[in-house]
Amino acid sequence: xxxxxxxxxSQTLRTALVLTLxxxxxxxxxxxxxxxxxxxxxxxxxxxxxSFDTPEFVVVYNRYEKQRIALGFIHVCDEVLQxxxxxxxxxxxxxxxSSLGFVPVDLRSTPFAQFELIGGVLNATIPGFAFLARTxxxxxxxxxxxxxxxxxxxxxxxxxxxxxxxxxxxxDVMVKGWPGYWSIEQAKSGKAYSILTWQGATRKFLLTINTxxxxxxxxxxxxxxxxxxxxxxxxxxxxxxxxxxxxxGVLSKRPIPDHPDF
Length: 262
Hints:
This protein is of the alpha+beta class and 262 residues long. It has helices at 9-25, 30-38, 55-71, 78-81, 93-97, 157-160, 213-216, 219-227, and strands at residues 74-75, 116-122, 137-143, 149-156, 166-167, 173-175, 178-186, 192-199, 203-209, 244-245. Strands 1, 2, 3, 4, 6, 7, 8 and 9 form an 8-stranded mixed beta sheet that branches. A two-stranded parallel sheet has the order 5-10. The chain starts with 8 loop residues before the first helix and ends in a 17-residue tail after the last strand.
């Protein structure tokens, strides 16, 4: 028998009121709680993040991985998708490129040449925080003939080092011999983003498109687009972080990665 189901109606009402008050005090919602207990794990939406060196992260990560492996993508809230939307931050690419401390890779002889270059963003991983903009990486934003938005985020790791120092799973693909990781997110609204991340000898790239490539079957074509990108010439002498396999929920003694891939 479910011990939360009293025999008397008044007790049921009191229990419901107490639970509602408790969840409100904790900043939680009963619907969110029920989602975690009742819904199919493959339908759970991920609506936030926890620090990756905590026990809570292990629970979230395991649910995340189960869904990712089964579906090839994860369900997220629309608010989570917004971190991939750089369009409000876009400025003319000439303005962005002239302020950089490195020379972005030349895409003129690649398939990117068929896209419309909309503009660029400095430090696009933190939209709305222009005062934190660094000059060692930037994002170029393109529009395809079909109207899809494609962005290429690029870091010259030779300037200040850093990069991906820790991962929690084996690579999904190899991009020109370098480990690559897919991250595909789908919201109920129909909006989606597919992201392919890889780190080469001196550069790190993050290639994004605003559609679910798993559902469209176009991951191979997107991988070929990634492989068309030149490696780039380093400006500095710093070496990127050596990537090692970590354990979710265990605080690594290594420096926290700039952009952990899991």
